[in-house]
Amino acid sequence: MTQAEFKNIIKEKINQSSHGQLVDFSVSICEQLLPDYISFSKAEDYGNITLMKEAITFCKENRDQNAETLEMTLDLEDLEENIPDVDESEDLDSTTAMNASCAIFELLEYLTDRESDHIVNIAIYRIDTVAFKSGEADSIVSVDDLDSNAAIMEECKRLLAIF
């Protein structure tokens, strides 16, 4: 399976899913990625763990809220400022922390505009994190064949099976 094939399959599944299912799917991924942000934040004395946790809680609590009536009580700019810059530190921890915080940011954006590309991006952040942790840091970028890494392929299958 190529990354393009994965994206096409997951887009189909997203288009067939309810808003609530998509929020639940995304919250689950954000919760799986959050420990990477916490670990990086503590090690580097960087970021705002509380803000990231509050953002996930906000998404859970507003799962069924209509985008037009959603009252965003979080400052997206503040959240964005707490996303690690991997250009400053290209190690595994900063990359996985960036993936976690970007996934949370994407979920908040999805709640405000309901654009399904945010959900695709959240899934890709999860796949990228698995790739980095399995030692295949360049696999998503340079290798088109996701089947080449068992951990990545297993995660792709797991994500697709959720729907």
From TrEMBL:
UniProt superkingdom: Bacteria
UniProt-listed Gene3D superfamilies: YP_001051499.1 domain like
InterPro entries given in the database record: DUF416, YP001051499.1-like_dom_sf
Name of the protein: Uncharacterized protein YjaG (DUF416 family)
Organism, as annotated: Pedobacter duraquae
The organism's taxonomic lineage, starting at the top: Bacteria, Pseudomonadati, Bacteroidota, Sphingobacteriia, Sphingobacteriales
